[in-house]
């Protein structure tokens, strides 16, 4: 097996390689003066099982195009089986047409990848699993619940309470709360489809003088988490921690969350950030 590290996922690719004792290579890259990208895969892949690790982190479009360039190249050079590891699958939140005339971006991305062809795609905590049906080959969704629960167990939280800032991640919430042997709940969130503004309905939570762990799949602008922090502080929570699989961090989200009062943000290496404290390498390696 040969693992090709895309430019967005060098550390994760190396860690997956260590798990499997497999060779990891990096594509050669340069930027032409006109802004176009050049790539070259410096090793033969003929007859090999190839795994391309490339998250579609920001800049999403560039990283997706790189994924397709690498995929097309290993196909041309005769790879036997090709697996794409795309932990953060960009555009998965555009999972249906919410307004007349909208581009169904998640479907377009899948169609482009289908047109080149691969054998398997692995993603993690995808926003809506339904988008995986757009692929015409095996596409599976893993969850960071176990590595997050492992981390949470060692945090030494005082009387912990686990909270999801919206109604969308019940499995992850339950898994982490179960490991901490504690209760959990979630908030109801609404997003204005036009302005993007996030509103969260307040409800009474048993958080007074307790440490709270907020759990979500994506931190994009951070407003979902900030609204939850504000509600928690109002209700007397002690230390507030935030755990999210994909640290997209749009528009200064990290600072916004820390300024709102979070003590720590814990993310994965789905997107490489300074808060990527949990690796997905083991769960991905187990599924290769
Ligand atoms: C979507 O509903 C997800 O579960 C996240 O809560 C959301 O993507 C976070 O977005 P933002 O950080 O922009 O509020």
Query: What is the H/E order?
Result: EHEEEEHEHEEHEHEEEEHEHEEH
Bound compounds, each kind once, are:
ribose-5-phosphate
Shape: globular
State mean pLDDT (0 to 100 scale). Answer: 96
For the CA atoms, what is the radius of gyration? 20 Å
pLDDT < 50 runs, ≥5 residues: none
Biggest sheet statistics: 6 strands, parallel
Give a count of the beta strands, DSSP E runs of length 2 or more.
16
Helical residues, percent: 25-40%
Structural classification: alpha/beta
The CA-CA distance between the termini, in Å, is 10 Å
- The tally of helices reads 8
Strand order of the largest sheet: 2-1-5-6-7-8
Which percent range describes the beta-strand content? Answer: 25-35%
